[in-house]
Design a protein that fits this description.
The protein is an alpha/beta fold. It is built from eight helices and nine strands. This is tRNA (guanine-N(1)-)-methyltransferase.
Length: 230
C-alpha cells in the first residue's frame, strides 16, 4: 500500500477532492492511504500560530520552520519516507514521467506552501524534491498537492478498472492522446471515423498513433522536440 501524507494549513480545501472518485476508489481497495495533517496542530503557542513576518521586512507572511519540523519529524518517527515534496511555483515542472516514477514509491509527504512560502531552512534540511504544476502562483500548495496526488494514484496497479487506460493518456511517450468517440456513431450527420467501427485492431492502432502525432504537432510541437533530444 502507498501512503501519502499531506501537510497543510487548510486540510478542508482538499478533503473533498481526495476522498471522491478515483482517489476514493484507490483507498477503498486498500491500495493507498491518504492522511491530511493540519499544520496548526503542531504550533508551539496557544494561538496555533504557524506564520510570522519575514526577516528583513517585506510584504506577506512566511510559514515558520518549527511547526513544519515537528510535523515531519513525527511522521518520520513512524515510518521511512521516499520523498518529502514541497509544492512551489519555483519547483521542477511536474511531468507525466514524474507521476510514473512517484507511483512506484511507498511513502510520500506532500508539503503545501502558503502565504509567501516556507522558511528556507525547511527546504534545505527536510525537502527532498520540489514540484511546480505551472508557471503561475496559487494562494497555497493545496490544489497542487491534490493534482500531484491524483496523477500518481491513478497509476497504481489496480486503481483503474482498465489497467491499460493510464498507459494511453496524454503525455505518455510525449504524445497527446488521440480523439475519442462513443455512441451514437452518427449524430446530426457528424459521423465517427469509419476505421473505429471496422473491427480492424491493427488499423485502429495505426490511426490512433497518426492522430496522436498530428494533434501533438498542431498543439504541442515542443513535446516532439523533447523526443528528438533524447
Amino acid at each position: 500500500m502507498m501512503r501519502i501524507d499531506i501537510i497543510t494549513v487548510l486540510p478542508e480545501l482538499i478533503e473533498g477532492f481526495l476522498f471522491h472518485s478515483i482517489p476514493k476508489r484507490a483507498q477503498d481497495k486498500g491500495l493507498v492511504e491518504i492522511q491530511l495533517h493540519n499544520l496548526r496542530d503542531y504550533a508551539t503557542n496557544k494561538y496555533r500560530q504557524v506564520d510570522d513576518y519575514p526577516f528583513g521586512g517585506g510584504a506577506g507572511m512566511v510559514l515558520m520552520i518549527e511547526p513544519i519540523a515537528r510535523c515531519i519529524e513525527k511522521l518520520q518517527s513512524e515510518r521511512s519516507y521516499d520523498e518529502i515534496i514541497y509544492l512551489t511555483p519555483d519547483g521542477k515542472p511536474f511531468k507525466q514521467a514524474d507521476a510514473n516514477e512517484l507511483s512506484g514509491k511507498q511513502n510520500l509527504i506532500l508539503l503545501c506552501g502558503h502565504y509567501k512560502g516556507i522558511d528556507e531552512r525547511v527546504r534545505e534540511h527536510f525537502v527532498t524534491r520540489e514540484i511546480s504544476i505551472g508557471d503561475y502562483v496559487l494562494s497555497g500548495g493545496e490544489l497542487a498537492a491534490a493534482v500531484v496526488a491524483d496523477a500518481v494514484i491513478r497509476l497504481i496497479p489496480g486503481v483503474l478498472s482498465d489497467e491499460t487506460s493510464a498507459l494511453t493518456d496524454s503525455f505518455q511517450d510525449n504524445l497527446l492522446a488521440p480523439p475519442v468517440y462513443t455512441r451514437p456513431a452518427d449524430f446530426r450527420g457528424w459521423k465517427v471515423p469509419d476505421v473505429l467501427l471496422s473491427g480492424n485492431h491493427k488499423a485502429i492502432e495505426e490511426w490512433r498513433y497518426e492522430m496522436s502525432l498530428k494533434r501533438t504537432q498542431e498543439r504541442r510541437p515542443d513535446l516532439l522536440s523533447s523526443n528528438d533530444s533524447k
